[in-house]
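Supplementary Text 2. Reproducibility record for the structural model of the 74-residue chain.

All settings were left at their defaults, and a single model was retained for analysis rather than an ensemble. We include the record here because the model underlies the residue-level annotations in Supplementary Table 4.
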Amino acid sequence: MWYTLIPLGFVLTMAIYGLVIQIGRFYDQSNWLLVVMGLVVLAAAIMVLLEAVATLARQLRANRETEAAPAEGQ
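Retained model, structure tokens:
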């Protein structure tokens, strides 16, 4: 599971960075439809990031509880 975090972080960072640059260009060109669409995609990317962090934290918590709990029948 941990080996996927580095590519996840890289891809998500580069995608968000590129999207912010494109939104800036669309804004400079007064292309409001693409600005709005870019902001919608940016919001979706941030939601994916937050969901990934929440899922990772939940999984880590569950692993710690499993390791800390004594085995049944012992």
